[in-house]
Design goal:
This protein is an alpha/beta fold. 52% of the residues lie in helices and 14% in strands. Strand 2, helix 2 and strand 3 form a beta-alpha-beta unit.
Length: 290
């Protein structure tokens, strides 16, 4: 049993922290910006809540973080009340936030200076993957830090692998999001085309899902896309737009052209302007209907 702090209890962090307590049997203390949510989690799972990231991190072996963006990461990790200030030597900070490689390297440098471990470990699999402990976790960091953290990460992972040095996990997540939105846009166009052509889409999907067009998105989202259902599940348009902007900023630095990704990011902007920013990102199909 490890002593663990989990910082950030959103739709991903809440069940992930729960798995560490119930499935992993670890001692878990949570922190959330909205204290009431942390207190509720403690009631639900029999753990404890803390008033600050520093307090949550004190005396812990591992500090897991899953917040919103680079600014949130810095606010929770750094400063007098931040997690790093509360960590003891040898503890490992694991950041599950989808953020930039820049902030990952900042965290690694600060942790190394203080004798702490660090792993950037963004996840893929969405809310369902978090709830069902079936996440893909792509990690960057020193090999020894990763090996120490992996048994803890495996509690909610379907697949967990170290890709390379600090920032590699975040860069891999950028690849993941670029691939996903390309597939989503293709799926949206294909489904819309099929409907306009008067095809029986159940029969169409039954055939093409057994060939080269098969994907997780097709298997799990075609029906809600055709029916125009996008609320109450999945990965929000605004979240995906945030992730794409991280990838586009990185692409400017490394010279990788991302023309399709840049266009799809604009589509998500149009959905946001329509008030659909919290809809599942499969709502791309709505832009094709009229």
């Amino acid at each position: 049993m490890a002593k663990i702090a989990f910082l950030g209890l959103g739709v991903m962090g809440y069940p992930m922290a729960g798995h560490l307590r119930k499935k992993g049997g670890h001692e878990v203390t949570v922190y959330n910006r909205t204290a009431a949510k942390a207190e509720q989690w403690a009631k639900d799972y029999g753990g404890r809540s803390a008033a600050t990231p520093k307090e949550a991190a004190q005396g812990k072996d591992f500090i897991m973080m899953c917040v919103g963006n680079d600014d949130d990461v810095r606010a929770v990790a750094f400063g007098e009340g931040g997690a790093i200030a509360g960590m003891g030597k040898g503890a490992v900070l694991v950041d599950h936030t989808t953020a930039s490689a820049i902030v990952a390297r900042e965290l690694h440098a600060e942790c190394k200076k203080k004798g702490l471990g660090f792993v950037d470990a963004p996840v893929s699999g969405g809310q369902a993957g978090a709830v069902n402990a079936q996440l893909g976790i792509m990690c960057g960091g020193e090999p020894a830090d990763f090996e120490r953290a992996k048994p803890v990460l495996d509690v909610y992972a379907k697949m967990c692998a170290r890709i390379g040095g600090p920032g590699s996990g975040q860069l891999t997540k950028m690849v993941n999001q670029v691939v996903i939105v390309g597939m989503l846009q293709g799926l949206a166009e294909g489904l819309n085309f099929g409907k306009r052509a008067g095809l029986d889409m159940e029969k169409v999907i039954a055939v093409i899902s057994k060939g080269a067009a098969q994907s997780w998105q097709l298997d799990n989202r075609w029906k809600t896309m055709v029916e125009g259902k996008f609320e109450g599940f999945g990965f929000a348009c605004d979240w995906m737009r945030k992730d794409l902007n991280i990838a586009l900023a990185e692409a400017k630095k490394n010279g990788a052209p991302l023309p399709g990704t840049a266009l799809i990011e604009q589509y998500f902007g149009r959905l946001n302007a329509r008030g659909a920013g919290r809809w599942d990102n499969t709502a791309l199909i709505e832009l094709l209907k009229n």
